[in-house]
Backbone:
């Protein structure tokens, strides 16, 4: 069996394509940050009402924050605007500037951190 290695020109073309894709991903991830920050703020504000939507949002965000399993079908029961906000949060979650601390800060800013943690009685 003969192994064919790419020529220098082919290798350079593959590298250029790789870096082009990585740049595109980086720009898309950075563009996702602002909608996610706005979305998280709106989701946490919705949690102040203590309605059924609030508990679904808490379960979904707690799953992101702590890995506690929850059904993604909870998303289906959210109002359309809240669903879009949650999708924005999921899209950006894990970015350097939008991770666990973002969720903690958002709930603390609305004085809902204890309520958020009461899901599993962790403080």
Residues:
């Amino acid at each position: 069996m003969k192994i064919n290695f790419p020529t220098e020109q082919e290798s350079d073309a593959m590298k250029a394509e790789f870096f082009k894709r990585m740049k595109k991903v980086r720009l898309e991830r950075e563009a996702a940050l602002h909608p996610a920050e706005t979305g998280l703020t709106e989701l946490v504000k919705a949690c102040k009402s203590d309605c059924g939507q609030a508990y679904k949002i808490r379960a979904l965000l707690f799953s992101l924050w702590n890995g506690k399993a929850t059904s993604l079908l909870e998303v289906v029961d959210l109002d359309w605007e809240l669903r879009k906000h949650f999708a924005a949060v999921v899209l950006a979650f894990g970015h350097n500037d939008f991770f666990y601390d973002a969720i903690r800060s958002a709930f603390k800013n609305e004085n809902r951190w204890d309520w958020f943690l009461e899901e599993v009685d962790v403080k």
